[in-house]
Design a protein that fits this description.
Blueprint: H1 7-17, E1 25-26, E2 30-31, H2 42-61, E3 70-74, H3 80-87, E4 92-97, H4 100-113, E5 118-122, H5 130-133, E6 136-142, H6 151-160, E7 162-171, E8 188-191, E9 216-219, H7 221-230, E10 235-238, H8 248-252, E11 255-261
Parallel strand pairs: 3-4, 3-6, 4-5, 6-7
Antiparallel strand pairs: 1-2, 7-11, 8-9, 10-11
């Protein structure tokens, strides 16, 4: 379906709402990525890298297609991964985030691309319930696990509405190489990140978030796998970064993607 926005309207909205954390292709050969407004190189590569790296395994686990699937995109930011799910013929996609600015960006992208099957809501993970949005075949948990103050509680909530697969992409706590062969216990590293502001030049994912200090917990690889199994996903595997050209953090091991399947 053709967009009801003119080229100039799209240009104006991109400039008004920039920076976007996801590069999304828009009508008239435009995109959400403005180099002069970009805060981090990852804004250009985030969506394309994770789609290349993780979606083939996800689609295989879903029987070869996302057609007819209900997809939940948690901490959706401006909705880049919701758009990708819609492109793959998902029946319904719900993107949720706590930040008004990101939901505004996402709804602009939805309108520009005429994505009727996609919905964006300002919602906390802890508000998710089967009675609120129903159950989902696939849940995207990208870049949020290591931001959570109560990761076990929040992930339990996500698992309760996920009946098929969960794709988890997260920063990973790395243990020193000299102890790694002998230390395979699940661990969580406590972090106290500094509060960012709209003037910060090295962030986009926290630009408009709460100004309150928070505590966060970064898991190691074993903690992610064990947690997902505990939550009812017996088949969990870490996806190896076999493709060339991915972000360096996937090869160095400070970022990892896990595919968890119910059966």
């Amino acid at each position: 379906m053709q967009t009801d926005l003119t080229e100039q309207q799209i240009r104006d909205e991109v400039h008004r709402l920039a920076p976007f954390h996801h590069r999304v292709e828009l009508p008239y050969h435009l995109s959400t990525h403005l180099p002069e407004r970009s805060r981090r190189p990852v804004e250009y590569t985030r969506v394309s890298n994770l789609v290349q790296h993780a979606f083939p395994a996800l689609i295989e686990a879903c029987g070869g297609s996302l057609q007819g699937k209900r997809v939940l995109d948690v901490a959706c930011n401006c909705g880049g991964f919701s758009v990708e799910a819609a492109k793959l013929n998902s029946e319904y996609v719900l993107g949720i985030d706590l930040v008004d600015r990101y939901i505004e960006q996402a709804n602009f992208i939805k309108r520009a691309l005429c994505l009727k099957q996609v919905e964006f809501k300002r919602m906390d993970i802890d508000s998710l319930d089967e009675s609120v949005g129903g159950l989902f075949d696939v849940t995207f948990c990208f870049g949020i696990l290591y931001h959570l103050e109560n990761p076990i509680h929040s992930m339990r909530r996500l698992a309760s509405v996920t009946k098929g697969c969960m794709l988890v992409d997260t920063d990973i706590m790395r243990t020193p190489a000299y102890v790694r062969p002998f230390f395979k216990n699940p661990l969580w590293l406590m972090n106290f990140p500094a509060v960012s502001s709209t003037e910060s030049t090295d962030v986009t994912t926290s630009l408009w978030r709460s100004r309150e200090r928070r505590v966060q917990f970064t898991p190691n690889e074993e903690a992610v796998a064990d947690l997902l199994k505990f939550l009812g996903f017996p088949n969990v595997r870490k996806l190896k970064p076999v493709q060339q050209g991915l972000e360096k953090r996937y090869y160095t091991g400070v970022r990892a993607t896990f595919l968890a399947v119910r059966a």
